[in-house]
Write a structure and sequence with these properties.
3 strands; Glucose-repressible protein; alpha+beta; 2 helices; 3-stranded antiparallel beta sheet; Glc-repressible_Grg1
Length: 95
């Protein structure tokens, strides 16, 4: 169950990171636009920094959840082992 939750959180954080990246690029274009007023450009430049931070945070969270899902430990009929090499019929309880 935890592996499924970690996988879902990984997808969620990856999507959030992509959204932040898209916003960052849009704000970069506004900040570079010489036709925009200085206040708009300054606000967009500030937003680029915030979006870049958000993108980084989401990537770190996504990587953390991805690693947690990969290394999830299962209890098998012959004791705890990692999932690789075993079928779901051998699983007694997922922690």
């Amino acid at each position: 169950m935890k592996m499924v939750k970690n996988a879902a959180k990984y997808v969620s954080e990856s999507v959030k990171g992509s959204t932040s990246e898209t916003a960052k690029e849009a704000n970069k274009n506004i900040a570079k636009d010489s036709d925009a007023c200085i206040g708009t450009r300054a606000t967009a430049a500030k937003d680029v920094a915030i979006d870049k931070k958000d993108e980084f945070v989401q990537e770190v969270k996504a990587d953390t959840h991805n690693e947690a899902a990969k290394h999830q430990v299962f209890h098998f009929t012959d004791g705890p082992k990692t999932y690789e090499g075993y079928t779901s019929t051998n699983i007694v309880n997922i922690i």
